[in-house]
UniProtKB/TrEMBL annotation:
Domain of life: Bacteria
Stretches for region Disordered: 1-30
Coiled-coil stretches noted in the UniProt entry, renumbered to this chain: none
Gene3D superfamilies (alphabetical): 3.10.450.40
Record's compositionally biased regions (Low complexity): 1-10
Segments forming domain PepSY: 35-94, 110-163
Record-linked Pfam families: PepSY (PF03413)
UniProt name for this protein: Peptidase propeptide domain-containing protein [Brachybacterium faecium DSM 4810]
Biased segments, Pro residues type: 11-21
Amino acid sequence: MATTAMSPTGAPTPAPAPAAGPGPDADLATTTFPVGLDQALAVADQTVPGGIVTKIELTFERPANAWVWKIDTQQNTDQHEITIDAQSAQVIADDRDQELSAPVAVDPRKLTPADAAARATALLPGSVAEWTLEYDDGVQRYSVDIRTGNTTEDVNVDVNSGTAYRD
């Protein structure tokens, strides 16, 4: 057990528990986190200065029992998948790989995650389980997982047109 101080009697006192965040069933259309998208992007830029952001994801990571930002950023052929705790801004992982030398940047300012979630849930009512922004087949799009009862279904939102559609 981690300790931070000694009690007046000399016995160790336990460290405070980490702040509890939303559980895995949180609706991302209505849930906010202490670490928002802008701060997560800043942490990614500090981790890989000048990298091109090629993918952004907000997801619940079961092994860590926490909501995390996963941001892929690339410099030349070096790709980093940076996992950032959505409660503390701590970098949990920086997985590295080699990719093509011509990365395509995603831009969450063209269509915000909140706007994409609203368009996806207008097409398929339910709660937002997770979302990803990436280029797929030459199109910048959000992939939004919508919880409907006991199932999760995928809705895509084209960033340029704002159109929500299902495959």
